[in-house]
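Box 3.1 A note on notation
Throughout this textbook, protein chains are presented in two layers. The first layer is the amino acid sequence; the second is a C-alpha cell string describing backbone geometry. Keep the layers aligned when reading.
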Amino acid sequence: PRDTIKSPEEIEILIKRYGGEKLARTLGRLRGSANAIIALGQVMHHGGDGGQVALGYLAQSLIHANADVRVNAEEQLKQLTDTNLVVQLIRMLENTALHERIMEILKQIDHPEARQIISKG
C-alpha cells in the first residue's frame, strides 16, 4: 500500500488482496502520514480483526508528535459506531497516556457504551 490511499474503494480492494489485519499493520507503520490515518479509519470501519488492529493504531496516534496526525486520528475515532470497537476503545482507557484523549472522544461518540462511561465520570 502506498501513502496516497484515499478512497474507500481502494481500501476494499486492498483488504480483499492483503486482508484487513495485514493492511492495518502496514498502514500502522506509516501512521505519521495523514493519508495513512484516514486509510486506517477506513479499515477500522470495515470491522473484523483488521478493524481492531486499526483502532489500536488510531488510538496510539492520539498522542503522536504531529498535531495533524492527532486531529485526523480523533476525527476517525469520533465516527465509531460498531459496539465491539467502542468497547475496545473503552478498554484502552487503562492506558494512562491515552486516558484523557479517549475520554474526550467518548464524549463525542453517540453510542450507548460511550454514554455509560461518560455518565460514570
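The mean pLDDT is 92. The helical segments are 8-18, 20-28, 34-46, 48-61, 67-77, 83-91, 99-108, 112-120.
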